[in-house]
Design a protein that fits this description.
Blueprint (H helix, E strand, L loop, with lengths): L8 E7 L3 H12 L2 E2 L3 E3 L2 E8 L8 E5 L9 E8 L2 H10 L3 E8 L5 E6 L5 E6 L1
Parallel strand pairs: 1-5, 6-9
Antiparallel strand pairs: 1-6, 2-4, 3-4, 4-5, 7-8, 8-9
Length: about 130
């Protein structure tokens, strides 16, 4: 990626307490379809959401730590060429690493961080 080009949003994620309820809601509200739940990084019942819009990005819905009282998050993932360098830069700008980098089984390397106002944002190594 050229130095003057921005990094694209490549994935969204909705993590909550009741995955079945969330999938039903988004299916009925927006006609999204879901792959069967598969192995995600530290996530139970995580499935890919297919928006079938022909434009935009697909995402995932699942639960992560709901049994531990974690209420979840809604976030987007930014594609970056070097995830460790991106996390280091985020830290110098007032952000904080939350998770990763971790490699999704059969998939990309991802990480989560918070911005200076504690919004959870994801990174995907492209």
């Amino acid at each position: 990626m050229e130095a003057n080009m921005g990094n694209p949003v490549v994935h969204f994620e909705i993590i909550g307490k009741d995955t079945t309820r969330l999938r039903k809601f988004y299916t009925q509200a927006f006609n999204w379809h879901f792959d069967p739940p598969g192995a995600g990084v530290n996530a139970e019942n995580y499935g890919l959401a297919k928006t079938q819009a022909g434009v935009g990005i697909d995402g995932g819905i699942g639960d992560m730590g709901a049994a531990n009282g974690y209420s979840g998050h809604v976030t987007f993932y930014v594609g970056v060429p070097d995830i460790k360098a991106a996390l280091n830069k985020v830290a110098t700008l007032g952000g904080r690493r939350v998770m990763g980098p971790e490699t999704v089984p059969g998939g990309p390397t991802i990480a989560l961080f918070t911005d200076p106002e504690d919004h959870v944002i994801g990174l995907v190594e492209t």
